[in-house]
Specification:
Structural class of chain A: alpha/beta
Oligomer: homodimer
Radius of gyration of chain A: 33 Å
Strand content of chain A: 15-25%
Shape of chain A: elongated
Amino acid sequence: MTGKYVYNFKEGKKEMKELLGGKGANLAEMTKLALPVPPGFTLTTESCKRFLSEGQTIWDSLDNEIENYLKDLEQITKKKFSDKENPLLLSVRSGAAQSMPGMMDTILNLGLNDQSVIGLAKRTANERFAYDSYRRFIQMFSDVVLEIPKVHFERIIENAKKEKGVELDKELHADDLKKIVTQYKEVYLRETKKDFPQEPSVQLRLAIKAVFASWNNPRAVFYREMNGISKLSGTAVTIQAMVFGNKGDTSATGVAFTRNPLTGEKQLFGEFLLNAQGEDVVAGIRTPNEITELKALMPTGYQQLKEAAKILENHYKDVQDIEFTIEDNTFYLLQTRTGKRTAQAAICIAVDLYKEGKLTKEEALMRIKPQQLEQLLHPHFALKAIERATRIAKGLAASPGAASGKICFTAQAVELAYEKGIKTILVRQETSPEDISGMVKAEGILTARGGMTSHAAVVARGMGKCCVAGCSEVTINEEEKMLKYKGGMVHEGDLLSLDGSTGMVYLGDIEKTKPALGDKFSELMDWVDEIKTMAVRANADTPEDAKQALEFKAEGIGLIRTEHMFFKENRISSVRRMILAGSAKERAKALDELLPMQKNDFYQIYQVVGERPVTIRLLDPPLHEFMPVKEEEICRLAETMSLSEEELKNRITALHEVNPMLGHRGVRLGITYPEISRMQVRAIMEAALDFKLAKNSEVQPEIMIPLVSEVKELVYIKAEIEDEIKKVFAEKGQTLTYSIGTMIEVPRAALTADKIANEADFFSFGTNDLTQMGFGFSRDDSGSFISEYMGKNILEKGPFDTIDQEGIGQLVKIAVEKGRQTKPNFKIGICGEHGGDPVSIEFFQKLGLNYISCSPFRVPIARLAAAQAAIKYR
Amino acid sequence: MTGKYVYNFKEGKKEMKELLGGKGANLAEMTKLALPVPPGFTLTTESCKRFLSEGQTIWDSLDNEIENYLKDLEQITKKKFSDKENPLLLSVRSGAAQSMPGMMDTILNLGLNDQSVIGLAKRTANERFAYDSYRRFIQMFSDVVLEIPKVHFERIIENAKKEKGVELDKELHADDLKKIVTQYKEVYLRETKKDFPQEPSVQLRLAIKAVFASWNNPRAVFYREMNGISKLSGTAVTIQAMVFGNKGDTSATGVAFTRNPLTGEKQLFGEFLLNAQGEDVVAGIRTPNEITELKALMPTGYQQLKEAAKILENHYKDVQDIEFTIEDNTFYLLQTRTGKRTAQAAICIAVDLYKEGKLTKEEALMRIKPQQLEQLLHPHFALKAIERATRIAKGLAASPGAASGKICFTAQAVELAYEKGIKTILVRQETSPEDISGMVKAEGILTARGGMTSHAAVVARGMGKCCVAGCSEVTINEEEKMLKYKGGMVHEGDLLSLDGSTGMVYLGDIEKTKPALGDKFSELMDWVDEIKTMAVRANADTPEDAKQALEFKAEGIGLIRTEHMFFKENRISSVRRMILAGSAKERAKALDELLPMQKNDFYQIYQVVGERPVTIRLLDPPLHEFMPVKEEEICRLAETMSLSEEELKNRITALHEVNPMLGHRGVRLGITYPEISRMQVRAIMEAALDFKLAKNSEVQPEIMIPLVSEVKELVYIKAEIEDEIKKVFAEKGQTLTYSIGTMIEVPRAALTADKIANEADFFSFGTNDLTQMGFGFSRDDSGSFISEYMGKNILEKGPFDTIDQEGIGQLVKIAVEKGRQTKPNFKIGICGEHGGDPVSIEFFQKLGLNYISCSPFRVPIARLAAAQAAIKYR
């Protein structure tokens, strides 16, 4: 196999990233723009792939190509690679198609040896510079190629400075550096039993092989795994003529953003070091100067930087992150790439670029990663603080935000601390309705069990409260009030921090940054609403949730989980009595107690939502979820029900199911106990009619039936609830427009959607359950093996985070097609967790869904993602 | 709406069953065959439907039609309906499209009144006959039309006989009967406050309305529900000129089968009564004579019956069940229908009809209901005994057969009783591996929890042992050794009987009939094998199971559930230590212990199965299923493992899952603990190679991976096990042909079957899990609501009994199509419970599956069903 494995900068362009890596492609692009780029060439990612697959050897034709390109380089620079007098020195840098900052290796000043260092000193009339360059080269080469620990070299330079009584490297003179070079070479000999290679072509060959091989160093492999980079097969290697920022005080090296990446302000932002090489800036040994100071020190260089920045930004139409070097007052560009930025900056920059006429609204919108908005909506740990923090475990990122506080193992402890103004983290095996008061008052919630839709997770998301759930890496002992983690233990009152956006758990308190939404955010979100075609609703179970959702411009409520209303303290007892009733009469009594409360729930929500659509799902979960677990609660309930404790326990046990997720829940409850559905529907309609009378405003409730798997279930329950609605209308002497639809969350429902559509006014996908049943993955139990699957590359993404388009997506597609085959303009939405996930939202846009619904705090993210999806697929 | 609602016998034919009912259609058919059928006409099932839907009124045009047909009848019979001298008397009988014996009503002798009874007496010169007919009419009319309790009439006739000192009705004379008629009419007046209607047309109208209405009497509704008759909308009413079997000793009435319905022998079989009307035979007041006696008493009549029987059998090509009447030595046919028969008779008759040249092999095969064969394979309760038994509950028909014995609540109690030669029924909340010794020695097993694939059900089916599982109608208290049922309670030592074919539980001991397979069965089953195109394999976990399966001519083993081997007493401890191991080393040690045992398991099975295909499924169930539950077992295990009881309990608790069916099981176990899969595969291959060496015979193991949902799972585990196989081959210096396939039991696997087929050598559908996940119905928990669904007509059949073609069937179809899209001749089978269900087997034939696999005792049923399916869909 032969072929072209090397390209010089004139042969490449920015579109060739896959082949030349980001660095190589952008150096070529800048060369084409006639910007001052030192000449060079790039070995392609394909050559790396071949190198790795052929037992890490370099084949002849590649050797030849390198030799030829090197000759060109000698001609252009008018230097010779192996020349003693006027040596061509090279940088050898890795660069993959996707940025992997700091993960692979770089060698500077390659080509120096004991002879050419003398020539360089003479030619530049700068002996100090020459030896400084040489000692840097030896150090980097030893590190990268031979993995000799850096500490050996650092110790030598430290000793030299101590002996001389100076603090900074630049205070060392040429003679000092000469001695250091000698000592460095001794280290090299000691560690490798060989002399430091003097032949530049040998140096280059070894350097190239080392950079290729660095693709598979553990750090790079780990980085790719963590960042989900799985499609790349190697790094490119860019070989470039050196320019020197360490030639004295007319030289410098630095990095600059074309705009402020923290705020988005339109101003150069960055830092530089005088008389230094690139790695000094990164290493943080010397404190760099702010970029604005360059103006005074090197006005020409600064001016050139400004112009280059302008050209690059206009060309790339985005903020650039630039590396530059000034050698003897001559400005060179060494790299440019898209600048990473905070969410706030991203928004500011996108809006400004549109206003400057550089981007269309659509292009500007596409620049914001929807996930980034989360930073704006919740507090986050300060980046620097988190680097120093001690991470002790990782659970599920169940509800975003950052929280710190003292550990409490009971809701009562949280409440006590709250009264004293102490911030707390509620730590529980898993939460139950009895913990809600504590959840409200804690800063964050940590549970050891339960998945993304466990009680803790769902309630916390509704509240917008930070929660890490299902953290199976820790052991929680509620009795003894301690939390064990791998390597240690904490107790009640100890400080703990949670990152609900990543699932990380840290020891101690960690500094947080506050969220901030500005005018530019509003402006951008206005464009979002102009552009997107799917409606964005929110899942909200309380008036507070609904209010929050509307503040984020939700267009309606896509899911009210009525069971969450059942958990409220003042009614859970009635709910329990309803469930455990020994007779229809007892049940009717409990339902009578619940009716006014449910009615009031709905009335309150109608007051917030007004005439926007409101989808109300009838009771869904298995009944045992409502049961008391604590002895004292059971005892109290038995009293209320005039039952012996034993009898009550028997009734509770009878509700036990082996696989509750596949058990007696959803519409199945409504079919067994139509009176429960009737009560709920009565509450919905009575509240709506009262509202109509009081406000002269018509709500249009959408009643949603959960867990339908067969159209006849829907027929059955519809007959029941329509009969009840007729009665309400007759009693009130008033009617109202309403609709009755169904969740599509059981695979069989998707497969028979044509029939179900005949009986339904709308579909709403419950993609959580659809994923659960489609994969056979219990949300509550699959956490451990799903992460193992991701580690072993069996799954790319957690299927509960992003919808699995290949499999579960087929069910969604089938249901959409079959539903619209029956009713061409059928209204179809989705109210599962995936409704807030940008990648999933794109998929729903492709399928032609009418709306998505997600938790209130994800509404802005979903809106932006919907707009981006509309741009891609309209 | 008008139309034709009445047909006379010349207008109908046997194909018009839907419209004329079975009775009406067959009377018409016999009329066409010129057999002696009294003339008459039939009101269609459509007229009944209309009658019921129009508030039970008869519309004018129907009245007119009836009048016209009545006039025809008068002409043919040369009698007049309202004539005093020569009255036309009628029978009015119900008859639906499907036989519902005894469920609806009949009235005879309609048309008699105080006047015409005198005319009839004169004309027939038989006063006794006339009044006997009249009193019968009054009694039947009162019963059917006015629901006057029969007991009033019976008391009168009893008194009359007592007064006279006679025993039999026929010993009553004309005068006695006249008095009885008077008394009957008094009863009528007393009960209805009206005189008995004298006008024949009024009688007829009331009778028709009553028969129509009887369609919805509770007993008919219940019968239809029990027998799954849901598509019929009404009964036909046949009105026919009376002929009289009660005209003296030259008259008789009877029923006859053209062949013996118990044994299948070719001989008339039936009974008759001299001087009687039809209902006397049914009522059982007088003991009828055997049909052979008719020959001597009425040679002409007997001859005519024989000839009619022959003509009918030749015409219908099946055994007929005939009703006849002989009036004054003249023979009349009143009904013919296909004769119901025992399984043994069905087989004998089918084989004989083929040999007689009346049926082809295919036609003969289609005559046997596969389900019927169950009667031949297991003991059954004697029909008459069961009628007298007290039924106390119904559970799932988990493993067929009939069993009686003393209740034992523990395996130990069973074993103790067994030693004393006492038969027992093991009654448990649910069984666990620790109960196996007791299960072996009990006659039958009853559990209160667990579904069709619970431990009890699966193990019992493997053993061919009667089991009723998941009988939630009873409460079992193992501590206090009692079983509560609705209305009572039984204790240890009380007698109980189980019908594993119906799920019924009875009090006491019940007489059983032994199974018997004869030569004709073998002959028939040989044809089955000639005709069927799908292979039939068995699910077998032990050599004994395999042996039983081969005796029933299974063509291989379609499923070995290796986990059942793990439950054996002598190894469960190693299994538990393997699962609960704290380190890989501990686990390896336990696996080393298990390896020789597993290897021996496989070797034993290979010895039975030889070169037939053997599909071995790797470990499937959630690990917690293997855990001890009893305190003492836990204690013992903790000792063996040198752990504290607390620590052991913690490890067991850690295995707990909220929804184990969707948890860490199947291939997921293999991915987490590849060493388990490796041990199993090593055992499979080492045993196979040893067998090859010892027997010079090559087994071809098919290794099957359970619960795959994503092709990469298969890729991963295949790499592991192929590596292990290579090692075994290298160690033994021998190789073997094997294949690696996968279950398709997760909806996502079906949807992505094209990709999975790339990596698999075969598919085997696990339709239990596919149903479970496709419907979202937990097998263990859905029993209660599935039966509610069937009661409410939401489901027609239990989806775990017969595959749901509409929904789950789509997944099977998709997987077959996608699998064969990737590999056109891909081998596909099914090893779920549905593999033994005839309706499901027909569906699998339609889809083109290569084989089905079911529990050993269902193999003959599956073979016959497969042959029938092949006949229908080849």
